Every structure is written in structure tokens, then in C-alpha cells.
């Protein structure tokens, strides 16, 4: 008679309780016959060990000592933060994507674009439709040297939006060289094809002639009025 039987516990029942305790540990998920830590997805033990050895294991959010296992919601939140927060598309650091923070910067970026097609996206962080369509817009212009995307956030650029009569979000303007403003409309993820059509139509190779009229007259008038102290 072994020690387990002597205490009135059969090996099978003891094993069941041990497994039950293992399953009950916070932050662990039982999947078939393996115990997998939360945050590793469907990674097996062998795969997990290989990732640890290679230094490629997923990083979990760090918590102060004594707070216990990391909640799933905290893990998801941190991953969303690292992925771009608002969902800004394939990259928040695309060379042809610029976040506008002032009227002067907006005018400078328009003038710098030259003959390139300039797509202006008016958006807000609290606008659900904006969050859905913005990644699609950035993906559309990703890697294109002939298109520039200027992102104008409503909350910090209300004067620009008001001057350009932007009354709904998301809203889009299209500008190009001496042709000035080519198009302006509102579009969502469901009507994203309108943006694709506009980029296809206005983004064809061309060299415009004449005076550059890419900066909206309304903004020029606003800047002049401010310079005059009006």
C-alpha cells in the first residue's frame, strides 16, 4: 500500500484533483490535454518553449508586484494601444501620410505636394465611422509616391474644418496642383468604393500647367485676415 492509498486517496482521484487545481489556476486555459497560458493563443508547449528559447515569445503587459495574473481585457487593451489605438491602417509612419496640427502646416503640406494628388481625411477619435474607414484609406494610399494623405483631426483643427465647411464626419477632399480642389464628399466603410474611384480618377499621371491653386482660397483669406489682425 503506497502513501496515497494509506491516506484513503486513490491515485486516480488524486490526479483528478491535481488536474482540477491546475485548471483552476488564474490565467490558465485547458485545451484538450495541454495547459496553455493566456496570451499565447493556440501555441503548444513545444512551440512555446521554442519561442522562449528564440526570444520571440509575445510580451504581456507588466503589472506591479502582487496584483496577480494579467486580465484578458488588459492584454487586449495594451495590444490595441501598440497596434495604433484608433486603427490607423497598415502603418502610422507611412512616408506619404501626415497628421495636421495647424493651418500653417496644412497649407505648407498642400504646397509641398506639387503635382501629387492630395487626399485630405477629416476625422475624429470619437467618430465610429471614422475609425472604421481610416485604415482602409491608409491602405489605399500605402506605398504610393504620387498620392499624399493629410489627416485633419476635427478636435484639434476645428478652425480648418469650419473654414472649409466640413459639417459631417468622416469627410474627404481631393486636391491637385493648378486644378485646386477636385472633389469633396463624405464616405464610410460601406461606401469606401467612392474614395477608390476618386483616387483612380484624379490620381492618373499628369503635369499640371499654370499657377498652383492647391491651397483653398478660404484658407488663404483666413491667413490674410489673421495677419491683418482681423
Automatic annotation (TrEMBL):
UniProt cross-references to Pfam families, sorted A to Z: Thioredoxin
Bias-annotated ranges (Polar residues): 34-44
Domain Thioredoxin: 52-228
InterPro entries tied to this protein: Thioredoxin-like_sf (IPR036249), Thioredoxin_domain (IPR013766)
Domain of life: Eukaryota
GO biological process annotation, one example: cell redox homeostasis
Positions of the UniProt region annotated as Disordered: 1-70
Protein family membership: Belongs to the thioredoxin family.
PANTHER family per the UniProt record, alphabetical: THIOREDOXIN, MITOCHONDRIAL, THIOREDOXIN-LIKE 2-2, CHLOROPLASTIC
Name used for this protein in its record: Thioredoxin
Organism: Chloropicon roscoffensis
Amino acid at each position: 500500500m503506497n502513501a496515497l492509498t494509506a491516506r484513503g486517496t486513490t491515485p486516480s482521484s488524486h490526479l483528478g484533483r491535481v488536474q482540477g487545481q491546475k485548471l483552476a489556476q488564474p490565467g490558465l486555459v485547458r485545451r484538450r490535454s495541454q495547459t496553455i497560458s493566456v496570451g499565447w493563443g493556440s501555441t503548444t508547449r513545444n512551440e512555446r518553449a521554442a519561442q522562449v528559447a528564440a526570444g520571440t515569445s509575445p510580451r504581456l503587459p507588466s503589472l506591479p508586484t502582487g496584483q496577480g495574473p494579467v486580465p484578458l481585457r488588459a492584454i487586449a487593451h495594451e495590444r490595441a494601444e501598440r497596434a495604433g489605438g484608433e486603427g490607423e491602417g497598415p502603418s502610422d509612419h507611412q512616408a506619404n501620410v501626415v497628421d495636421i496640427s495647424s493651418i500653417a502646416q496644412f497649407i505648407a503640406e498642400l504646397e509641398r505636394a506639387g503635382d501629387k494628388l492630395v487626399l485630405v481625411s477629416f476625422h475624429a477619435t470619437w467618430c465610429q465611422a471614422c475609425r472604421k474607414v481610416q485604415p482602409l484609406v491608409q491602405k489605399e494610399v500605402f506605398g504610393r509616391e504620387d498620392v499624399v494623405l493629410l489627416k485633419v483631426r476635427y478636435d484639434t483643427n476645428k478652425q480648418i474644418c469650419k473654414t472649409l465647411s466640413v459639417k459631417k464626419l468622416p469627410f474627404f477632399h481631393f486636391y491637385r496642383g493648378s486644378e485646386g480642389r477636385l472633389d469633396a464628399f463624405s464616405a464610410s466603410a460601406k461606401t469606401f468604393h467612392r474614395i477608390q474611384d476618386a483616387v483612380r480618377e484624379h490620381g492618373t499621371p499628369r503635369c499640371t500647367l499654370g499657377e498652383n491653386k492647391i491651397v483653398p482660397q478660404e484658407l488663404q483669406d483666413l491667413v490674410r485676415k489673421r495677419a491683418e489682425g482681423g
